[in-house]
């Protein structure tokens, strides 16, 4: 390990975007045979730095050396020629084409007429070597997310890339697929490649990397050997301050029930029962956590309460008003905030930030006078929320689609938590996987907001896969399994093992919530 | 009334009428596969017909076809510049080019202008050629032996050179599209240009080439219409055939081979409508038969709207979407 060749050396890289200094005099190096984690929060500049290395962005200043030669990388074409391959977060594959077609696209040495017999044979060899099992003839749309990622890797390997960049590769993978990926990456590194793993997950850094470069706000704050650091230290470097691991709650829950769900039955999109006889109640100033493996009816339950899905049987009341099978506008009027699991479904990307912010309230004063919108008060409110929720946007008139993922999440939070029609604050917050895909600081921000709203008197329904999150925030926890509630635990009874067993369907204690 | 001779002549007519659609839609398949909708096809077709009319009288068939290809190439280049380089709305650009083609073709074939063009091209041209609205038809080439086969011989192997060219071209273009590197690059550019770019495919070049091929074949279809099918010049003689070809591309689901079937089907409908009227069938409602190609196209479109069908069939995902590197 001592005489490792330096594959990549990036020196003093600076990149400015309008209003943001994305990379500020960054140095980075990659050795042959190592898995190098590039750690940082969303917006820390990791992806920008790697996009520069891959030729997608031009740097404003700096030098890049690849395998001992100073290079100028103007496009991905140049990068590929230098043996650099990149697997993006959003797969760059053509779903209607076959695996083989996707892999050989743009390869001149394939000749004029493509010999698929020979190509498929070569591919199968590589596929088998890494322990994968995708058929080269399969159309890409037929593959799972993990398999698509393998196609992306194959694309790079087939081009003999020895510098591989992976941008948040595990965000779309199941735990098993993640393990498979890490094994393959290890194998690739051992064969003499250099692997760069862009991530914001500490456990991944610890599990798979040899070295780690930590970035914060466009700057490199540390380069360490993974063996020499602890997760806590990395977290501190990444966030710049110690993390909050518990929240203080100010007041006890009251006896008033805000949400009451009785014997609710809901079908999923395929018409199969998804929620089967769920009953639950949430009090004012209480966070009820719903634990469970994703796909056990949580999503359908929340959507039904939010008025987005019809119940086939049962009753839902909010503050005594029956809202069963009422449309979402009726539900919203009761003071319900809904934080959806998928941001994209709740943002109009081509409309402005301000327009997105008032999307639930534009019908009501002060934003409209019966017919005409009052742009001035809309803009003022937007300006105010942008500041309070720390949304990074050039102006309220900016297209929402131009914002980064974390900022869109803040935008939704701002809308849902402070612009509920006819209510000062939300009475009931439905939070479905509210921190999924967010970085550490944004996650903390969301959690704090939920607790704050609880303290102010809101009832909160929190659906999450993250047990730590459930345990940290909830006053009470119910566990869902196959559309049913299999157990309930009060805050004092919370134990990871108990919840874990219940999530697997082993019924214990509790009874109906 | 419906005997073998009648059937033979209807089917041969279907091939002759359908070849217009086949040539035009082959080019359009390439343009659309690369992600560019050439709504100016009608304009390129009529311009091709007009240019072939003028050049056939001045220099004969060979140069007429060459001139047609050149004008198609130029028109394709113009479309590519507007929609690929300037990234203008392809619908607007296409309609503008259709109107430009219709206007320009009327202009260059008007008596006075045509006379001047012809005299400047060929000062020794005879008086007759200056005045005629016609041009000599392309000769029928009977393929030895094959043309003797009953039915098929008359239908497929006793046609002019452009009919044969179109059929061979369909097979060649299918092979190129699906079995060569060029074809893979072309299809990829129409599916996901950003990705193709990242893999080292020159998106702009591919789109320019595809659109120029489309323009050349669009104009060639017009030349065939005039010197190969009905060699009597009438202003606006394409009468919507360019748009029918656009519909055919959808019906053929962007495959050069399926375009053959669709083209002859459309051609058959066109011919049948006349023939059936002659024998008194559907004389009152010829519109019904003329409607059929569109009806079939609408049904195809409906099927294509299903998401899973889209994936299976491969509607070019980036069709009409201009590409720009960020």
TrEMBL record, chain A:
Any one of the GO CC terms: plasma membrane
Domain ABC transporter: 8-242, 259-507
Membrane topology annotation: Peripheral membrane protein
This protein's UniProt keywords: ATP-binding, Cell membrane, Membrane, Nucleotide-binding, Repeat, Translocase, Transport
The name this protein goes by in its record: ABC transporter ATP-binding protein
SMART domains linked to this entry: AAA (SM00382)
Source species taxonomy: Archaea, Nitrososphaerota, Candidatus Caldarchaeales, Candidatus Caldarchaeaceae, Candidatus Caldarchaeum
Annotated source species: Caldiarchaeum subterraneum
Subcellular location: Cell membrane
Automatic annotation (TrEMBL), chain B:
CDD domains: TM_PBP1_transp_TpRbsC_like
Topology relative to the membrane: Multi-pass membrane protein
Pfam families per UniProt: BPD_transp_2
GO molecular function: transmembrane transporter activity
Keyword line: Cell membrane, Membrane, Transmembrane, Transmembrane helix
Cellular compartments annotated: Cell membrane
Transmembrane segments: 6-24, 36-56, 62-84, 91-111, 161-178, 205-227, 288-306
Gene Ontology CC annotation, any one: plasma membrane
Descriptive protein name: ABC transporter permease
Organism: Caldiarchaeum subterraneum
